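W.,

You were right to be curious about this one. When I first looked at the sequence I had no strong expectations either way, so I just let the prediction run and decided to look at it fresh. Below is the sequence, 260 residues in total, followed by the output.
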Amino acid sequence: MNKPPVSISLSSYGADLVRQRGQGSFIELLAAAGAHCIEWREELLTLEDPAQLADATRAQGLESVYSSPMELWLAGQSKPNPELITALQRAQAFGAKWLKVSLGYFTDTSDLRTLAQILGKSAVQLLVENDQTLHGGRIEPFQRFFAEVEQHKLPIKMTFDIGNWHWQDQSASSAARLLGRHVGYVHCKAVSRRTDGKLVAIPPAASDLHLWEQLLRHMAQGVMRAAEYPLQGDDLVQLTTEHVAVLARLGQSRLENAHA
């Protein structure tokens, strides 16, 4: 039986717990919960051994994404971030099929030929995410970036973070309509504003799931979707299992209608 296309970002379990337990301790949990994929978080690594994690992940039948907080394009530089080569190598060492980074400062002078040369030497696919910044969290730079990606025929997909659009008052629905065909990975999180005005990620309510269902209609059938919101409770296996099932159901009505 094929696992549903659901990933879990390990940041969902809280930075303190993940650093305390180590990211490898979550492999069996995710496998038991029926997840398809695990998202390693570079910023939460402690002393994990990449080869051991890669072997353990494969043994449990999981795929993996390696998430790096680096920006693909640095301010004032036309060449890709020099850290990209190292990040691709680290992703491969962790057994990841995908490397997730932020867009950064993409401009008309950004050098995609050099980017193509770097990606051509790696088996890891690049995923570029909308983050929470003014320069990397708005729709228009992504439209320009993926127009260039298409022109250069680069093997790059988008990580579409549903919640992050809120930080720049962007419409997730508009973003999905304009960018959905480029999406290869979806970060799912609902967003709430605290009393101090700060935006925070929260688990989805029924209204959020309805929105997510609509957003996925603009993307490829069966696109990988990841939980990136708090998964915290006494029984993490049961909780994760429930949310894997919730995310797996997204898009099912579309699939059923297609087969009707």
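Here's what jumped out at me. The radius of gyration is 18 Å. And, maybe more interesting for your project: The CA atoms of residues 209 and 250 lie 8 Å apart.

Coffee later to discuss?

I.
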